[in-house]
Amino acid sequence: MDIKRSDLGLLVALDVLLETESVTVSARRLGLSQPAMSAQLAQLRAMFNDPLLTPSGRRLVSTSRAKSLKAPLRRVLGDLSALVRESAAFDPATAEVRFRLIGTDYVHAVAASPLLAACGRTAPGIRLAFMPFDPPAVWPALENEGADVAVVTGMDLPDAKSRVVFEEDFVVICRKGHPDGEFLRDLDRFCAADHLLVSPEGGGFVGAIDRSLTEMGRGRTVRASLPSFLLAPRVVAESDLVCVLPRRLASLDRDRINQYELPFPSPRFVLRLIWHPRRQADPAHLWFRTTIADLLRGI
User: Fold this and answer.
1) What is the 3-class SS of 238-290, one letter each residue?
2) 119, 133, 216, 276 from 138: Cα distances, Å
3) Residue from 137, 135, 116 nearest 200 by CA
4) From residue 36, how far is each of 232, 270, 290 by CA, in Å?
5) Residues 153-174: pLDDT tens digits?
6) CATH for 3-86, among 1.10.10.10, 3.60.21.10, 3.40.50.720, 3.40.50.2300?
7) Distance set, CA 188 to CA 79, 183, 196, 243 (Å)
8) How far apart are CA 55 and CA 61, in angstroms?
């Protein structure tokens, strides 16, 4: 393949074809007719001397050669796209851009409403997608531009750009009128209560609080665990269970739960905003991550 004689637009078509494995769907995404898309596939097959997509039953599947091209092609196109974006000015008041943010349900709970409100005031054409947190998929999503930024804690991604957005600690919550109530500030009463634990990985009965208690030679009884932070306030509000939650999340449900300081120094964790170095100088991306960081610091 002689790159000097090739149309770089064909590489964009190849990227879409490899993602969809469908001439029809690719044509629709690129705004082409199906014959035009088929002609581009024929050109690509000649360029790479490989079928790229081959019939399997009633559908097309990628060849081994095509699969080996998918990731490096996405990176190259991402670099070219960043090169173009960096030379373009960004005006949030008139921009029509989609941004995608990866985070846990905790991050989405504390950030979604204020971020939507902030964008509505200064960037009404912006669209926001809040994406689920799957640790192994975070870096591939940022690298392949399947997401713009992620808000994470405790992840070591040495290739990522990052900045700290805030530090968080924990409080204990219970329903209004709970018989222990303010007595939960006492370590003995805290340990004697029936606890609800949030276990994001699912099924766990031990967390950071239990490790802190163990260091003090104490323990507690965890009666139930939930997979989501967002479920905890409702369960607590309708039972005699108590639960330890991040402070900012607990503050969202003041109308139906009470929150108290822990009877020992709270564990703490740091939230970091991370992104791919390719997006470092992108004006739109810079505006978005600055907006998020400023917003989260103020919550």
Assistant:
1) CCCCEEEEEHHHHHHHCCCEEEECCCCCCCCEEEEEEECHHHCCCHHHHHHHH
2) 24, 7, 36, 11
3) 135
4) 54, 51, 42
5) 988 898 999 999 999 999 999 9
6) 1.10.10.10
7) 58, 9, 17, 15
8) 6
The CATH homologous superfamily of the domain defined by 98-167+270-297: Periplasmic binding protein-like II (3.40.190.10)
Show Cβ contacts of residue 272 under 8 Å, excluding neighbours closer than 6 positions: 151, 152, 153, 155, 162, 163, 164, 165
Q: Please name the amino acid found at residue 261.
A: E
Strand pairing category for 242-246 and 194-198: parallel
- Report the pLDDT value the prediction gives residue 58, as an integer from 0 to 100: 84
Give me the sign of the Cα torsion angle 235, 241, 247, 253.
positive
Query: Rounded to 5 degrees, what are φ and ψ at 21?
Result: 50, 40
Q: Average pLDDT of the chain?
A: 90
- Average pLDDT over every residue of 82-87: 60
Q: How far is it, in rounded angstroms, from Cα 289 to Cα 101?
A: 10
